[in-house]
């Protein structure tokens, strides 16, 4: 787990640049005996900016960046010359990144679009030069404003994957196999629990040039909300899914009971997840015949559309895509 390339949580110190000081300067030229004040303003301190980048899908590039520091603004100069602004520090993050204040937990911003830029930590303002303080009664001010200090704060970035469909199920329910069958994704597949240790995304082609994004998250077990198995670490990734596809294998002892356990774990984590559209897929249906499917259909939950599928034999996968597409768009 520690060596995984999928990083969805980072914490770092964000420090914006301080503003430059205003200048105390007086015009001194030949034949101009009383030129008056002409001190320029200080430059603005650099911002810390988050920018959405669709080419990134993890926060791995920020894992070891514990301090993010922008440049300070330069001081003003004579001749009303403004100091240079400090260079901004721009951090590219994947879409679906949430920024929080580490101390208060307050959500600062959310990046959901490619190229979207949000100022995370604002740089200090530059001070005003003495040119701003001249008046009829104060024609030679010998003071200027200092620059505003930069801000230093600890920030948490959390990634919540953006997908149309989230696969929810126990370990070994066939979620990764389904993803590999309907998309070009190559998740690790094995005949033991918790083969999937990190979420996987796949783009599923649908009838021509249409497509939707499917997310496979690690399996949930009973007690996940209390920290069993992989716990609730990856449940945040289905919070932004349009629909939830519950997967229960055909060889499960009690399909209705397993579905109920999954629903209960989601409810304990976040009750709002139950407001999303839901579908139920009975996987590994290649081991069943038509008569057995008809018998099992009577035992399935009534309040959710269900379908029997097999990722290995491709049984009913096109019908599953139709069902998903209708749920997403209607």
Automatic annotation (TrEMBL):
Localization, UniProt: Cytoplasm
Gene source species: Anditalea andensis
Position of the signal peptide: none
GO CC, alphabetical: cytoplasm
UniProt cofactor(s): Mg(2+)
CDD domains: Obg (cd01898)
KW GTP-binding (keyword) present: yes
A molecular-function term among this protein's GO annotations: ribosome binding
Entry binding sites for Mg(2+): 176, 196
OBG-type G domain residues: 163-329
Enzyme Commission identifier(s): 3.6.5.-
Taxonomic classification: Bacteria, Pseudomonadati, Bacteroidota, Cytophagia, Cytophagales
Family: Belongs to the TRAFAC class OBG-HflX-like GTPase superfamily. OBG GTPase family.
Chain residues that bind GTP: 169-176, 194-198, 216-219, 283-286, 310-312
SUPFAM superfamilies, sorted: Obg GTP-binding protein N-terminal domain, P-loop containing nucleoside triphosphate hydrolases
Subunit structure: Monomer.
Protein name: GTPase Obg
Keyword Transferase part of the UniProt annotation: no
Enzymatic class: hydrolase
Keywords: Cytoplasm, GTP-binding, Hydrolase, Magnesium, Metal-binding, Nucleotide-binding
GO biological process, one term: ribosome biogenesis
């Amino acid at each position: 787990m520690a060596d995984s390339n999928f990083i969805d949580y980072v914490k770092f110190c964000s420090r914006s640049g301080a503003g430059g000081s205003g200048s105390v300067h007086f015009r001194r030229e030949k034949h101009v005996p009383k030129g008056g004040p002409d001190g320029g303003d200080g430059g603005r301190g650099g911002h810390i900016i988050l920018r959405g980048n669709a080419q990134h899908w993890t926060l791995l590039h920020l894992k070891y960046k514990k301090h993010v520091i922008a440049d300070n603004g330069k001081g003003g100069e004579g001749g009303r010359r403004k100091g240079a602004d400090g260079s901004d520090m721009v951090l590219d993050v994947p879409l679906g990144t949430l920024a929080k204040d580490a101390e208060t937990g307050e959500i600062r911003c959310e990046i959901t679009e490619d190229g979207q830029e949000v100022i995370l930590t604002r740089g200090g303002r530059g001070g005003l030069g003495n040119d701003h303080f001249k008046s009829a009664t104060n024609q030679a001010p010998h003071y200027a404003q200092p620059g505003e200090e930069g801000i230093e704060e600890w920030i948490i970035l959390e990634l919540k994957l953006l997908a149309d469909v989230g696969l929810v199920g126990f370990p070994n329910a066939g979620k990764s196999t389904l993803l590999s069958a309907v998309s070009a994704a190559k998740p690790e597949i094995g005949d033991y629990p918790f083969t999937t240790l990190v979420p996987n995304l796949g783009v599923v082609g649908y009838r021509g040039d249409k497509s939707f994004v499917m997310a496979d998250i690690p399996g949930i077990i009973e007690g996940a909300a209390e920290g069993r198995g992989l716990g609730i670490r990856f449940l945040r990734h289905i919070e932004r899914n349009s629909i939830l596809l519950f997967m229960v294998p055909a060889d499960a002892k009690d399909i209705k009971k397993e579905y109920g356990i999954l629903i209960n774990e989601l409810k304990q984590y976040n009750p709002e997840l139950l407001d999303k559209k839901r579908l139920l897929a009975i996987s590994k249906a290649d081991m069943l015949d038509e008569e057995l499917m008809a018998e099992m259909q009577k035992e399935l939950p009534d309040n959710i559309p269900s379908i029997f599928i097999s990722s290995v034999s491709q049984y009913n996968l096109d019908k599953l895509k139709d069902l998903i597409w209708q749920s997403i768009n209607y």
